[in-house]
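Troubleshooting log. The previous run stalled partway through. Resubmitting the same two chains, unchanged.
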Amino acid sequence: MSTPATRTLAPRLSAALAIFVVMAAVPPLALALDDPFLMVIASRMLVFAIAALSLDLILGYGAMVSFGHAAYLGIGAYAVALGARWGVTDLLAQILLGMGMSAAFATVTGAISLRTRGVYFIMITLAFAQMAYFFFVAQSSLGGDDGVALQARSTLLGLPLEGDQTLYYTILGALVAIYAGLYRLTLSRFGRVLKGTRENALRMQAIGYRPFRYQLVAYVIAACLCSVAGVLLANLTEYVSPAYMSWHRSGELIVMLVFGGIGTLTGAVAGALVAVGLEELLAVFSEHWRLGFGLILVLVVLFSPDGLTGLMRRLGLRAPGLRNDGEGRGDD
Amino acid sequence: MTDLLEVRDLRKNFGALAVTDGVDMRVAEGELHAVIGPNGAGKTTLIAQLSGQLAPDSGRVIYAGRDITRADMAARVEAGLARSFQITALLPGMTVLENVALAVQARSGSSFRFWRDAGSEEITNAQARMALDEVGLADRAGALASALSHGEQRQLELAVALATKPRLLLLDEPLAGTGGAEAERLIALMQRLKKRLTLVLIEHDMDAVFQLADRISVLVYGRIVASGPPAAVRADPAVRAAYLGEEEGA
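Second attempt completed without errors. Output:
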């Protein structure tokens, strides 16, 4: 499984690369088609790919089913609004601010949530996210329930993030960097401990680990990365509202993972792309698009429980020459 | 010989049931100490308390001169007190080598390393392979743990426990569900291990126990009713009544 000298590019890595290359081609394509809306949709796809990636770290690799992950999307977005108010307009500074706030919230709520298991963990993460939601609803200086429009986008190293192309490639850059970082992390010592804990926490204790520490650190990392998506989302919509951290949003992030296949990273990216794409596509046909969305979700769960990743793997098995060694649930 | 492990008046109740009812026990450094007893005698509960998985209601566990009654599992493993599980507890979605390498990793440097590929750590892998070699599982290193046969999983259980480099190893029915050649291989392995480790062995296979043990403690309804060398235990009338007679009749 890990013989670095002879290892070729893992299938999931080449799939992710292919996605990134295709997405990099969207701006010129949108220009050629004179369809600016295409850029907007693609930008949303990328932002949610970051959010889904971060959730995959804890849900897919850590078996921590958080139903409150959108809280960090919202906290990231509010970091932009608060930053702008305090005169902090640089994107990187706002990202640091968002990460700082997310790390603080995640450390406290994670430490408490991780005392519970199973459905209680799901419920307690949901409850904490709702607390964050209502906290921002109550901030009338930040627009309360309605949210607040941004005066301008952030700046990056002094340059304004004007023009949809600049912002688009900034988001894509962030996505690629976060994917690469998480890919390394999942293969690292830390990643192994996280996966081992997912497989059997008692066994991990019996060989000398205290799983709580590793789970909490993963929880905080995931929160920080998700807040990056929030910062970018605020810049994309030039608007910040508590709706970004509603529990529907947390549910959508889980749906993205289910679509793509959990615990592979690439599946999270693919799932976000498909989910946002479907949402836009189905909305064209009917205002009741959620019905169609739900139907597709049911079909995915019934016929390909591992999502798109599982589907690709099975197709790969059938195609001669594309052998799948069947090891490591595709996370090798 | 000095005592490596000493258990004093250990008690654990589940509701009204006293599963561990005042257990006193001494395990000398270097011996293989078997704990036998009929089903429901509380053997696995005892192991759980010795390994730190379960906190006793009262009593003390002293290991290497230190009171470890309140120490958690990780601290005990760090001090050299490891265990294997009766019901195989492996990491099914990971390879055989990874299962063992994680045990090596736990005692060799920090696991808060986020970038370097853990699979390419030569030293960790080499030590993991040694443990696999020892149990005769080296040729299965690349297989998923879930793909192993039952006997191979029992071998892997032992390899993982050994990879923690224990001084005292608690073996909870290592032969459970194995037969013939598999069991013989595991017995031979325990013969080798007892030369360099202290072992506490819980086992139902009486032939194996009397073949391996230096001392035997007999646990019946949460109490040690007899403790001593195999010959003495075999002759003990209380043991015959409570346990061996029943076994021979079966």
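Takeaways: Strands of chain B lie at 3-14, 17-28, 32-36, 58-63, 66-67, 81-84, 168-172, 198-202, 215-220, 223-228. Chain B has two domains: 1-80+166-250, 90-165.
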